[in-house]
Every structure is written in C-alpha cells, then in structure tokens.
Write a structure and sequence with these properties.
Layout (H helix, E strand, L loop, with lengths): L1 H17 L4 E15 L14 E12 L4 E14 L2 E17 L3 H29 L13 H15 L10
Antiparallel strand pairs: 1-4, 2-3, 3-4
Helix pairs in contact: 2-3
C-alpha cells in the first residue's frame, strides 16, 4: 500500500514541471567585477574638507541559455574632495536566474525589477567592504526602488521611439 501512495506523489512532482508551470529561481550570485582606485593617495589624506559622493547605478540582463539569464547590477561610487578624486569603487554583482515557462511579457519586468532587487543587497555589502578596506570611513549605499528605475527607463524609451514595442533587457 505504501508503494501505491508514493508512486502518484512522485509522478505528480515530475508532472508539475512537465505541465509548463512557471518557475523563477536564483541559481547563483557572484561578484563579476570589483575595482578600487585611490589615484591621489596619500596626498589626499591631508585634505580637511568633507568629501562629496556620487553614485551611478546600472542594470543589465542577457539570455545565456533557453531559460537561463544573467542579470547584473553595477554601482560606481566616486568620492571627491574639491576637484580631486579620493576614491572610485566600481562593483558589478551578477546572478544566474532560471525563468522557465514565464510569459514573454513578464520576462522583462522580472529581469528589470525583481532580479536587481535580489542582487542589490549583495552589491551593497561588497561595495561597503571595499570602501572599508581603504581605511576611510564606511559608506553604505541607500536603498533603490528598481520598479521606479524600470518605469523611468520605459518612459525614456517611449519618448525616444513613439511607436516602440515593449522593451527587452539586453
């Protein structure tokens, strides 16, 4: 009797994926690129003024297999005192995601909103650690609304091309 009960459960577990059920999984996250530059050290350490910080953030995604995508979030932190660069830290956090049986119109929002949202905490920690290793005061990146960034990108693409279709991440 136990074999009879296990067989349908095992069959149902296999059938779930075969029946085309949507599947979204983060398979791996990794630091794809990390760079720290302090071009004006050690002279810059003698400056007494407070530094000004600028942060640029970019996201991208590309298909690497039929249902496998790589999504990346890149942050470039540039800190200056007057006109001199104190440090530049650039990091790219990447993730391998499986998107199986996802409707085509949902793939771009997943890659443009959900994937970066999942990767960003890893990137924040990596950037904070890199800055900490410069012996300078810690800097923690603020939270980011990736949905707002995605919607802004859509609006900009719509303005640039009036008859544009739904954009896709590259």
């Amino acid at each position: 009797m136990a074999e009879h009960n296990e067989t349908p459960n095992a069959a149902n577990a296999g059938a779930t994926q075969d029946e085309g059920q949507p599947s979204f999984n983060l398979q791996r996250t990794y630091v794809k690129d990390l760079s720290v530059e302090m071009p004006n050290a050690p002279q810059i350490f003698l400056e007494q003024e407070a530094p000004k910080v600028g942060v640029d953030l970019n996201i991208s995604a590309e298909r690497i297999a039929d249902t496998i995508f790589e999504a990346t979030v890149t942050a470039t932190v540039t800190t200056r005192i007057n006109d001199k660069v104190l440090y530049i830290v650039e990091g790219t956090q990447a993730g391998i995601f499986e998107l199986a049986n996802i409707p085509q119109e949902q793939i771009d929002p997943l890659l443009g909103i959900v994937c970066p949202t999942m990767l960003y905490p890893y990137l924040r920690a990596t950037i904070a650690d890199a800055i900490n290793r410069t012996s300078l005061p810690a800097l923690h990146l603020t939270e980011v609304n990736f949905q707002q960034m995605y919607e802004q990108r859509l609006a900009e693409q719509g303005e640039g091309n009036a008859d544009a279709q739904q954009p896709t991440m590259q």
